[in-house]
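Issue 218. Parser rejects a valid record. Input:
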Amino acid sequence: MNAASTFSAKPRAAKTPPKGSSAIRVSGRTIYGLAQVFKLLADESRLKILLALSQDAELHVTAICDLLDQTQPAVSHHLTLLRMAGLVGYRRDGKHNYYRIESRLVCDLLEQFFADSGNGHKQLQFDDFSLSYKRK
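Output the parser choked on:
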């Protein structure tokens, strides 16, 4: 900007929602938590790890490496991120770690999400389909 230029900022008017729309009923905390989970699941390797663990209940790191055709450091990185987010847990047996899904966080987030947004039902209705949630 040169010395002759001036900058004038006008305050923004508060936006009002269009008529007929309603406020988002899901808490910011729930939305943030789900967004963090979805970010982790957006990676193909991490999604494959979770799908494999959902099928086999528990896997050794070497089995996950073979499944993904990735090195142990790469798989360990993914597992660490999933573990820090509370999506997987592990048990140590000698020198080996065996990983399993920890579903409590996702279960709690989804339950809160559907409770807040599902009009008292565990279901969201779209034009062509519905999405529902049922806890075991």
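Fixed in the parser; the record now loads. The radius of gyration is 22 Å.
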